Amino acid sequence: MSEAVVDELRRRGWEVAAHDLYAEGFAPLLSAEETGTVGPAAAALDPQVALHRAEVAELDALVFVHPNWWGMSPAVLTGWVQRVLAPGVAYKLGTAEGEPAGLLRAGRALVLNTSDTPAERETGEFGDPLERIWSACVLPYVGVDDVRRVVFRTVVNSSDAQRATWLEQARQQAAALSRP
């Protein structure tokens, strides 16, 4: 799905910084030195984190593609959020009690999730935790106001035809990023 999105964006002339956090061996563990929230984060000692911070500061849009694991993103992506969307990079916070000011210029984001949980159960029983995480907690905090999310489900019993349809829908969602 990620490859389909990247291909679509590049086909439309977008410059894309694409990352497969697992393939890159991204270290998701937040160090004690990285846990501050009020003052600007210290310069990243990890060159990979420094690269991702520099890239995210310049993006026009963000795209996240991940499975729903226990109502959360995979640990590597959670660690990426914690280490890359750092104070002074993605937001600023004057006081611990204050409202954040988002610093990212990316005003929109696309989140594509796969899931094995039926929609009725996800929303009715669990309250759709990934919707809350991305649309209420993470992305507005860093200044992203336009959050678009699509869930492709259920993966475990999907057919080849269904997965091909999902890839086309992912491409369409990527193409729509250029439209407000």
Summarize the model shown.
The protein is of the alpha/beta class.
Q: Could you describe the 3D structure shown?
A:
The protein has about 180 residues and is of the alpha/beta class. Helices cover about 40% and strands about 15% of the residues. It contains seven helices and five strands, in the order H-H-H-E-H-E-E-E-H-H-E-H. Strand 2 (about 90) and strand 3 form a beta hairpin. The longest helix has 17 residues, at about 160-175. The protein is globular and about 50 Å long.
**pLDDT averaged over residues:** 93
Low-confidence stretches: none
Number of strands: 5
Outline type: globular
Estimate the helix proportion, in percent: 40-55%
Count of helix runs: 7
**Beta-strand percent range:** 15-25%
Instruction: Describe the oligomeric state of these chains in a short phrase.
Output: single chain
Q: Specify Rg, calculated over alpha carbons.
A: 17 Å
Largest sheet properties: 3 strands, parallel
Order of helices and strands: HHHEHEEEHHEH
End-to-end gap: 22 Å
Write the layout of secondary structure elements.
Layout: H1 2-11, H2 21-24, H3 47-58, E1 61-67, H4 75-84, E2 91-92, E3 101-102, E4 108-115, H5 119-124, H6 129-141, E5 146-153, H7 160-176
Helix pairs in contact: 1-7
